[in-house]
Each structure stands twice: as C-alpha cells, then as structure tokens.
Design goal:
By secondary structure, the chain is mainly α. The chain is built from seven helices and no strands. The longest helix has 31 residues. The radius of gyration is 22 Å and the shape is flat.
Length: 185
Amino acid sequence: MNGIDAIATCYRKSFHKRGRASRSEFWWFALYYLILEAVFESLVHGRAQAAHPSLVVELLIIAVGLFAVYSFFPFVSVEIRRLHDVDRNGWWLVASMLVGAFTEAAFGVDVMSALATHRLSQFIRAFASGGHWGLILAFVAASALNITVFIFLVLPGTSGDNRYGPDPLKGDRADRRDTRLADGH
C-alpha cells in the first residue's frame, strides 16, 4: 500500500475497529501525522516567537487543534487494527493510553502541588532519590506498556487469516499479481 492509499484508507476507516491493518498502512499514516504535526507546530512556534499573538497565530492554533481532533480517531483505529494484524487485542492500546494518562495526571498534580507550596526543589530531590515510588512505578509501567505496544506495531502480521479477519496483504498481493498478468508480465 502506498502512502496516499494508506492515508485515505485510514480516514475512510476512522471508526472501524474491526479487521486488520498492514504495517505499511499504519506507518504511512503515522509518518503523515508526524510530518503535519511538526509543520503545524513549527509554524505556530515561529509565529508566536516573532510578534504578539496575531490572527494568523490564532488561526494556526485552531488548525492544529482541528487536525489533531480530526486525525485522532483514524490514528487510534488504524493502531487497533494493526494490533489485530499481529493477533493482539486492541485493549493493549487502551491500557497503554490509560496508564499513560493517569501517570501524567498524577505527576502534574504532584508538580502543581509542589509549585503551590514552593517546595519544587524538595519534590525533585525526593523524586530523584526514589521518594515517590508510586509515581516512579507508574512511569515504569507506562513505559513498559508503550514499548510492548510499539513492538507489536513493528512485528509482521500473522500469515493468513486470524481471529480478527483476513490477511490485509492477501488483497494487495492478488492485486499486484492481477496487474502483472494484465500487463503481460
């Protein structure tokens, strides 16, 4: 699957959590998302540094927000279908997102509390020396889940059909074979 087809497929299947997605479909969409996000962020950052907030900066911020919201569901959907391709449940992604969100929230609350009581240096020293073992354990758990999900996303899909559906590469192989036959190769 080429990049344009992958991006179109991901947006078309924005709310389809069933089925499977090939590595190319997922990674093309991930590359597209990261490039556009980086371009938007650099434009916003460049404009915000240059002058006082202007209408252009405000419109860029809105565009970045709309892009993020518009692309969130296709990204989650293709990630779940990619996990299905390696015969893993989409709950791996949900667990990774939830543990990460709770960890970030707990860390944020602790930092804000330390800032409010003017004890940030004490918090940093305690964190560095292992005094916040619950928070450290949460970071380790979130990191382990993220690494596990990443490994699943990199692995080749299961050959043939699995419990989540037919092999997404079978159709691509058949289409390429039919094209070669039609071209006389």
